[in-house]
Structure formats: structure tokens, C-alpha cells
Amino acid sequence: MGTSHLSKENLIFKTPINEDIYIREQKGRFQKIRHCLSIVLMAIFVLTPFIQHNGTQAIFFDLQQQKLHFFSFTLYPQDLYIVSLAFILAAFLLFYITQFFGRVWCGFTCPQTIWMLLFNWVERRVEGSHNQSKALDKQPLNLVKIIKKAIKHLLWSAISLITSLVFISYFVKVKGLYLDFFTFQSSALVVSWVLFFAICTYINAGWIREKMCQHMCPYSRFQSAMFDQSTKLVSYNQTRGEGRAKRKLTQEKSAGMGDCVDCKLCVQVCPVGIDIRNGLQYECINCGLCVDACDMTMDKYNYPKGLISFTSENKQKQSWQRHLGYGVFVTITISMIFIWFSSWKSYEVSIIRDRQALYRVNHNGEIENVFILKIRNKSNQTNSYQIKVNGLANAKIIDHSIITIQPGELQTSSLVVSIDHAPAKNKSDINFNIINLEDNTSLMKSASFYSDNINY
């Protein structure tokens, strides 16, 4: 095959570590896809905290009360099993997609890439092209340079602050966050966290930038373990492109010349500053910018597109066996999530025996056992719960059998169960059926009933 070899052994390191990268702007089909995805993802990120459900924020992490509100669901620490499943599913989906399309997550949807290219877009609007930006940095300090740098960093700071406020709005109610912050009424804790994440965003997207992908991101280090010969990666066709040589648009391609005109646009547009013509490199994020740049050049010279393209070594029809590994894990995880949702209840119940006495006999000669009942209402509305006892003949609940609990409350109460005669066994099984009168769902809890015939 004419493309550069894609095996794991061919991962090479060609990026100069200390060289500043000035990203050239590029148009093309992959850039359009990225723009659309970036707009959609950023809109979801910004607008999600503003979604209201039953008069309150639909998605809200209440760290103080240790609750996660997700529309009609209120999840407590003991419910975070579903959150673990969601992260496991996301990881398997990421690895699954990586097996087929390489690091497309990094190139098209990773927040690091989105914010890095957003900051670069601002830089290009203020300082001009990548060459103008490079020349500006080399100039001695002057008024023009100070003004342009001040405007750029002011815009970067504004974007960072807005990003931080949006992130914090998932943990602080959005209704008061923005107004309180800009009117200086927010608490010192909120202000400190907003400024902390704003500074992190500013440094990460404005200064660290590609170094995150090159040196800090762990995903770039183990990505090759998920590649195989059928994985589609951005690759340079060496057979067609070499030997590379500069030429005029009207110049005929002479013998020994490849299609590569050595314009270096593929390097100039690369967010991580690598030369894709040097082979597969771990820093490559499969963003496709070099593909768009090369296709544009091929159009100018009337050469076929695809000198740099998303391709794989094995171009044969994909076999179903490739879907087995990660596909099975994804299917199992999704099934577990559905099982969890189908068994989830809007309330939790705990019943334990009162440890002060095994039993007691009341003034009517009835045998009583006392149980400690705890019910947590995890819904966003007031609910009433009816407690019924069964499994033991003539057993009944003394006093209240219906309990009303406010949203989010945990209520503890004593539950007295009596029986008018001693059962045949000293220790009998008893069941409590707790029914939510609002939606008619029920939970069954088991316990033990002790009688007066017990032997010590």
C-alpha cells in the first residue's frame, strides 16, 4: 500500500519541544464538520444549566446536600452506581470509536481542541494571519503591539470567565449566579472558584494549548494499543507524494517528482505542529486540518485529492469480528443501565430492629416488636407512604401506617408490630410492604419477629 506504515512500532517523535506553534487558519470539509460540532457542543454546555424542570434547575449538582438532580431523578451518593456506569459506557464508546477512526474524539469533540481553536480564532482576528502573529511577537515593544496583545488577552480572559461561570452554574443555581457575580454579591467561595477555573481555562487554552496533547494528555500515550490495520488514521501517501519538490502552478511535473509540492501547509495548519509526512506520530489528533490544506493545494495544481487522507492499511470489507470486543462491553453496560433505571425507586427504605428489647408484652397481653423505619423521599414532590405487614398471621401495625415525607427528606420513626398470640416459632419471618401512594410503586423489606417463647 502507498500510505505510510500505521503500525504501533512506527510511532515517532518529530515535534520540536520548545518551538512556538502559530496555527494557520484553514477551510475545508473537515473544518466545517468541526465548526458545526463545536457550535452544538458549546451550545449544550452553555444552555443546559438554564433548562428548568418543575420550577427548578433540571441538571444540578448539589454538593452541599450531596445530591445530583437530573430532571425527575434525584440521585444520592448511594445512587452513583449509575454515574459509574455512565462513565464506563463513555469510556467503552470512546475506545470503540478509536478502534475504527483513531483519535477523532481529540480532533473534533475534545474540549481542549475546541477551546484551543476558539482562542486561535480570536488571535487571528486580532493579530492577523499566523505569519503576522509570528512577526508581531518578534517586534520590539511598541504601541501597536501593546494594543493588539491587550485586546487579545482581554478577549481570552472574557471567554475564560464566561466558561468558568457556565461550569460553576452546574454547582451553583444559575438564577442567582450571574447577577450576583457581576453585582459583587457572590460569596467569597463562589468568586474564588470562578476565578480559579477562569485562570485554568485562560492558561490551558491560551498558553499551554498543543502541549496538553503533546505531553500531558494520557490518552495520547495509550491510544496505539487500540489501533489495528483497519483503523482509519490521517496518513500521507508516501508512494504518491515522494519525491516532494516545490514548483510553480504552470510547471509540468517532471520525472521523479511526486505530487507533494512541499508547501508545508499541512504543518502550518496542524494544531500540534507535527509534519504528517514523517509518518504516524502519537501527537496527531486526527483533526483533518492537514487533509483540508492538502486537498486545497491539490486542487490548485489539478492533482487528485487524497495525498493526505483518512485511510487504513487494510481497506478490505470490515468483518463483524471487529465489533466483538468493545461492542460486547458497550452492550452489557447499556443493558445494566436499563436494568438500573427499571428497578430505580423514588424512595429508599431501611428497617432494623430496635436493639433495646427483643420483644415486649403490652397491657392487652399482645406481643410487640419495635422496628426503626427510615424512609428517604428522593423525589421532588411530597409523597405519602403506606406500610403494610404480612407473612405472619394476625400481625398488625400499631398507630401510624401512613407516613408523609417532604421532598428530599429522610424521616426516621418507630414502627410497632403486635400479635395477639405467640407464634409457633420463637423467631418468625415478617415482611414489610412500603407503598408509594403517589405512583403505587412498592418496596418489600424482610425482618424477624420474636415471641415470648424464646429460650435464652
Key descriptive features of the protein:
456 residues; alpha+beta; Immunoglobulin-like; 3 domains; five-stranded antiparallel β-sheet; 16 strands; elongated; disordered N terminus
Give the radius of gyration.
32 Å
Beginning-to-end CA distance, first to last residue: 85 Å
Question: Based on DSSP secondary structure assignment, what is the total number of beta strands?
Answer: 16
Cα shape: elongated
Query: Count of DSSP helices?
Result: 14
* Helix content percent band: 25-40%
| Number of structural units classed as domains | 3
Largest sheet: 5 strands, antiparallel
Derived from helix and strand composition plus strand pairing, the structural class reads alpha+beta
**SSE series:** HEEEEEHHHHHHHHHEHHHEHEEEEEEEEE
Pick out the low-confidence regions.
1-18
Question: If you average the pLDDT, what whole number results?
Answer: 86
Strand content: 15-25%
Question: Mind explaining what this structure looks like?
Answer:
This protein has helices spanning 29-47, 81-101, 104-109, 111-127, 130-138, 143-168, 174-182, 188-208, 210-216, 219-222, 238-241, 265-268, 289-300, 324-343, and strands at residues 52-53, 56-57, 59-62, 67-70, 73-75, 233-236, 308-311, 347-353, 360-361, 367-377, 383-390, 396-398, 402-405, 410-419, 427-436, 442-450. With 456 residues, the chain is of the alpha+beta class. The chain folds into 3 domains: 1-14 and 83-100 and 221-344, no CATH class; 22-75 and 110-208, no CATH class; 347-450, Immunoglobulin-like. A hairpin with a 4-residue loop joins strand 3 (59-62) and strand 4 (67-70). The longest helix has 26 residues, at 143-168. It starts with 28 loop residues before the first helix and ends in a 6-residue tail after the last strand. Mean pLDDT is 86; it is low at 1-18.
